[in-house]
């Protein structure tokens, strides 16, 4: 959970929205799909197919929408497994949380729908045993180059990943 260290009332409200996203995902697990649906629709303007993936742990691990990681340099990442050199959502030292959320809204929406690597998406890849169930591992294993990664090509994650 993020906590606001700033003085702006708007920053506190935005942090509350991020926290609400994490809490909204828990409403589904608590058997409250109506509340979950309303919060997910309000915060992310998700369509029905995106909402379906939002709460399905077999399709999506939750990186970037159920939780986020704030690194020591202020970089906001989808999860601790993502290295800053490959994928960030924005820098909270340089920009307000509201700006980061607005400027990265396409990344946040994408993260709600991306499927985790599976035997079907990975095919006969030699790295498949390392990547199953995690969207960060194939990024690290492939060092941002998805020319040999069936999952990376299928999901289109390369449009958000910086190759070092």
UniProtKB/TrEMBL annotation:
One Pfam family recorded for the sequence: SPASM
Ranges for domain 4Fe4S-binding SPASM: 61-125
Protein's name in the database: 4Fe4S-binding SPASM domain-containing protein
Lineage of producing organism: Bacteria, Pseudomonadati, Pseudomonadota, Gammaproteobacteria, Chromatiales
């Amino acid at each position: 959970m993020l906590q606001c260290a700033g003085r702006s009332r708007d920053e506190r409200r935005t942090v509350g929205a991020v926290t609400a996203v994490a809490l909204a995902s828990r409403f589904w697990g608590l058997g409250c799909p109506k509340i979950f649906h309303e919060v997910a629709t309000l915060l992310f303007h998700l369509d029905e197919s995106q909402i379906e993936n939002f709460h399905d742990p077999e399709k999506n691990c939750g990186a970037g929408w159920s939780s986020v990681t704030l690194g020591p340099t202020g970089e906001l990442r989808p999860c601790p497994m993502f290295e800053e050199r490959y994928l960030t959502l924005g820098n909270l030292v340089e920009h307000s949380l509201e700006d980061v959320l607005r400027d990265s809204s396409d990344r946040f929406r994408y993260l709600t729908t991306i499927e985790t690597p599976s035997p079907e998406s990975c095919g006969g890849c030699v790295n498949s045993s390392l990547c199953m169930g995690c969207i960060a591992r194939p990024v690290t294993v492939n060092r941002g180059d998805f020319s040999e990664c069936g999952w990376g090509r299928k999901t289109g994650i390369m449009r958000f990943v910086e190759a070092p």
